[in-house]
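Progress against Task 2.4 (sequence-to-structure conversion) is shown through the following example record, which the project officer requested during the mid-term review.
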Amino acid sequence: MKRGGVNANAMRVIFRRQFLVLSFSFASLVLGYRKVERLIGGSGIASDRTSSLFSDIQNHWAEASIQAIAKRGILNGYPDQTFRPDSFLTRAEFAVILSLIFLDAEPVREPMQSSSLNGALNGAINGAIAFSDVPAAYWAYSGIQQASLNGWFSGYHNGTFLPNQPISRTQVMAVLGTALGFESPAHPLQILKLYFKDADRIPDWTRWPTAAAILQDIVVSYPDVRQFYPDQNATRGEVAAILCRVLKLNHAVPLAYSIRGLGINDLKGNVTVAFPQWRGSARLMQDIQTVLANFQFYPADRINGEYNFETEQGLTTFCDFYSLNTMKTGVLDEKLGWTLTHADPIDYFLASAQDRNAVYKEFLAQEVAYPGNRLAFLDRGAASSRYFADISQFPARLAAKLDEEVITPSAERLRIASLGDSTVLTGTNQRVFFTPFPEYGTLPAIDSTGLDFLHPDIQEACLCVGSLVNGTMQTHWSGRNALDNVEMWSTTKIIPLLNVVCQANAVQPDANVRDCLVRPVGSPEGYGFYNLAVDLVSYQRAIASSNAAAATFKQFFTPQELENWVRNLTGNRYLDFTGRYDEPPFIQNPDLWSQTTKAVLLKSAYSDHLGTNAISTCDLARFAAMLGWHNYLPTAARLPAAQWSSLETVVRAMAMDNARYLDGAIERLHLSSSIQAPVIVSKVGFGRSQIRDRTELCYVGLVWFIDTKHLPLGDHRPVQAGKPAVLRTFSLALRAAKALNNAAEEARQLDARVAAEVTEILRRIMTHTDSIFICYRWEEEN
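Structure tokens generated for the chain above:
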């Protein structure tokens, strides 16, 4: 038997046209038996009710239940045409009722030897338990003996039955649990507390049958369906309603007092829950609240199974978003159940973020919490990132071969897909194509209208979206003034870092810059390459200021050497890259010394960089992409001579950027639950131009992650058939500007604006209609 199931034999009712009338000396209560067909009731009280059989039940809450039971001869009224619905039912009366309903129940106790057995209801059952207060002449003797023989009642320790004692509501549940063959469900008290505010007052010995009765939909509780009233005796009206539910005469029981044990997965076919029953469907409400909490439509710390104002508001918002008419019809049905179990919160968050002005206002409101010259996103700090602890794993994730390596934190095998060689942009019929990464010295083909959606404050921008095709990174480039050479402030500091790596590996391919010291020429002491690189990126000043550290890395080359290297690599013949960053170098004449080989790899060029830096967003996005995608680019498209063993040091350093615009975008879109193996590297630049009389904010970054949005990674994450996880990666560079004649306000608005635009870029990338081209195997060990 399944846990909580009903014994089918216990529910069988034998057809008879006659019914037995038992009279009481103290009153003329009539208990009758005849065939009762199981009626699978509807969701409301029968509308074709006949005139009342009794004079005292009009407008009584259990009127329909009383009539349904009385018409079946199970529980009738008194000679004066009354039913007395609020009078208590005695133990004797309930025993007789059960012995009539479950006439075919099999005894569980061995009767004593008897010379005569006249039947269950037509004489005494000799040898059954003899209760001292139930003599053979007692009107209910046969019913009590049968109930005892069947194990429904046991009496008291002193040998009495107390037949005239009112039966409590808890005893009714305990007896029915036995009669119906219920099995104890798991965690009965937990079930009871979910449904009833007074669950703690339910006696221990009746908890499991009461919980089982809830799951079997036979509990009725009046006047408050959220209270069980365990200390109260059962009235005749209550018992009539309960018996209607036992016999599946649900149409005769008021919905407002009927308790339902179903959950969200039970809303299938014809199974529905009408509005009056919502309060009594605590398990279903708990399931709904859990889903709503995942959408942030309901507070996650108040999931309690109660249908309250917050539940109503959350369910209304959910139904409005998915165009469901549930709140209009007041019926929870299969369509709602399917939507609740298949809806992905991320789809909602992505859709809700389409209102970019609202997102911008949200971000702008966060600026208020940052005092003085600190900004909400630019100054958030790497340690605030939820992926901060993963930084040491970033290089391995970028180096992984998807069909060989072990990458995902869950240690499970995933089916990974790329975007293929083309994809259709969501909401359009536009198909964009991915082409090979441009080779050394070649400019990429840029879609000059692809970033038209960006806010006008974004003056220049370039976005490079990657897609793996046959193990090689293919790209699609979009831009706004992406080839214009402009001052990109501190974002260009990553270029001398990358140049040092390339030149060092050109001298010694197996050298790892993480093992190198940057030191004054001829000095035995120096500073770790990584440590200086972190100061350059993060402004931590552990060794030097960011400007001084960046100027130091430029000192390995003459201005013209460095500028020519950048021009030849990018194909941008008109850029300028001969300037410094407002401070002299931390080390005026450095050399790069390998602690492993005890050799100098690079020497100072003994030259100063006193010109200007003007470079395009396309160039910067390209450098970020060449760093992050090094292992998936052909040799002709890679950073020349650079080895991954050295580039990984730059990856870890750039992960320490103070600015967390990509983190903010992931948080706003609630993507953290769908992202595995993330990598975020970036560099921010910021300042107020006296020449242009405005504040400018620049940002370059690369992101890489496995999008598991369509995989069942949590209770709220449904499976979307045929949808594998998708590798998503892109690099971007942008410059935003604001002129308000108020430097502080310009900074706040620009910080919020860049955060909003990066969020929009990520949202659009996440909502591509993916053309799956190739799948890979992807795992990660813990």
